[in-house]
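Objective 1.3, modelling of assemblies. Example input:
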Amino acid sequence: MSVPVVLVAGFLGAGKTTLVNALLRDPGGRRIAALVNDFGAIDVDADLLGLSNDGVVSLRNGCICCSLQGDLMRSLTRLLRRDPAPDAIVIETSGAADPAEIVRQLLDPVIFAATPLETVVTVVDARHLADRPDLFEDGLWRAQVAGGDLCVLAKTDLVDASDLARVRADLARHKPPRLTFDAPALPAADLLFSGEGRPPEGRAPARLPRLAAAADLFESVSFTAQRPLSLPRFQAAVGRLAPRLLRAKGFVTFDHQPDRPMLFQLVGTRATLVPTAVTGDLAARLVLIARAGDLDRDRAAAWLDAAVGPGDEARSG
Amino acid sequence: MHDLVLSGGRVVDPESGFDGIADLALADGKIAGIGRDLGPARRVLPVDGLVVAPGFIDLHAHGQCVAADRMQAFDGVTTSLELELGVWPVARWYDEQAHAGRVLHYGAATGWVFARIAAMTAQQTESSIAGMGRAMQDRRWADHAASAAETADIVARVRAGLDQGGLGIGFPNAYAPGAGVKELSELCSLAARVGTPTFTHVAYMSNIDPLSSVEAYTRLIGLAGSTGAHMHICHFNSTSLQDVERSAELVRNAQAQGLKVTVEAYPYGTGSTVVGAVFFADPAFPERTGGGYASVETLATGHRFADRDEILAAQEDDPGALVLWHFLDTAANERHRALLDVSVLFPGGAIASDAVPWLMPDGTTYAGDAWPLPDEAVSHPRSSGTFTRFLREWVRERQAVSLIEGLAKCTLIPAQLLEASTPAMREKGRLKAGCDADIVCFDLATLTDRADFRHPNRPSEGVRHLLVGGEAVIADGALVREARPGRPVRRPVAA
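Predicted structure (tokens):
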């Protein structure tokens, strides 16, 4: 059984620890364990995460890839071997780090099989941006925002309305507003993890996240197919859908490998396909989640329907 | 009287090309003869049904302690070398290993990066991945080009390491990307003068310019040409990403011109993102989505791009081009397997593990001698299973190379890479009279790696006997716990 991972990135002091604490406090039925990637040897962030000390493990050598890999594997293994094992893991990265390196490590197929990366969320400090607009030009800040599937805008209550509007407008140049959320707006666990907590064994992966139940904020569309899909046409459909979606999840089988169902996940503009064992009678079963009003159900269904059936190469042959 | 005769095995020697049933006689830690009726022996060990081959030589092993040695012993390794990071001071490291006792033969290159830490900062650190991590407290050694005076100091320290018997120069350039070409060029000229190879983890890892993997390889090849140094590329698989075919072409071209450029690879899928655009490039999926390829790759490599606005504008025009696809299915996907094959099967390339240390839950490196390894000790599965995985999948299951060709990549090729400068390596990696009795006997039919992320300390299976300098480390598939036959592999120490 694999344990999904959420990665929290963002500048020093942006509010990453607050977000992690919010996840631990309101985990949406999940047993969440936290990993903290300290900067240097000082355990500052781990101290701040005083809320649930036994859920927190420190990564120590945060910056360079070989030591990061070892530390990451050690820490993840330590969490996986807990009894009871966690249902989900949140990793708080160093504020001085570009999340790209840790993402790369998490995408090592060996690691991904046990602890699949689900969401990269970058916390952005509204107060800080209002005071220092030059941050928008900072290379590290931009790398962190670019590396996040979603952005959480923190400390909006510390900024007056006109400054906040300006910050939102500037931020929108770097991350689409549909992928940006105000920090206290909704339970973070439901935003960041795609499924419900504690799915019973053997259940098909495509479940409505609890997020979708907040019907005033989000809407969802289900899609099923009786026949395998063409991969290139599915990718084209996802390409059209992605600018309108928050996330999507489910399983898909493709016509070139009909016996090899794949777990599909999309968050923001990042899609993952990995082999999965769970299917059922259907060839595909997906749930698409969007902000209310963003998604035209009929068009979405039509785009995905167009991916069903043999691909062009099969048709022409 | 021989000490031991291994009788009736399938003896495979990549140097002579011999592959047949024969006996192998050992005496005084050396191979005494190969054939039939080799004369009396104190002990005869029947190895019918097993392959008898030279023990594997790992050019890239960071573990360097008893626990790491034992896991690699079950992977068929008899010589474990730390050539990429290297060590410094070199003499002290060899003294420490001799004092601690080692299971496998050991050796190290001169650790340029540790010389750099010493020359450019006031830090004292140990020669290990963890020590390098600790030295990040003052990162000038990683980020800055050295001044002329610092360069002279670094070169002097590296030269001292070579004089103390270091097997070459380790250039983990990716950890010190700030190092300048003038400094590297001085060090490569030094390596060329002394006649030792250099071992590089290239500075950049990206599929887009600037600072692409291709730029890094081109710089490395340039150093081979301009200084005459032998430039060895570490883990060619993991640093080439999707450009591995082009990178291999560049290396082959350099080799064809007589430049001393060599490669190694480990047989595990890459940790990097695999993007849709590449997937579309698979001939089986001709519906490629035209433009946007470069922007997808930009995102995929996590590169810090300056033209975010342009990319956002592109998103409006062609939203599909910006979805980043992670396709994590190396086992089933032909295209990914083909990319991994380019590095793993590179003609004349070595298999090398990049085995990393075994870490305990508190973050310390496991330095004990418990067997089996403690359950809580963690490493990457390649620290346990690189060679057995290669032989199982590429040789036995897929028959991508013959057994003798596959074994050459684990034995003769790494030995030849070092032997011009390290005479001791002329007696390793082959089975002939007078060579070291470093021998692995394995059951090809059942040979397999068993480590995975949740169980990294599962030893590989199928190695029935492993002899290091004629002494048994594995006997009948079980570890000989008291065995410490490992000896230093070292260049002659300067007077």
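The longest helix of chain A spans residues 65-80.
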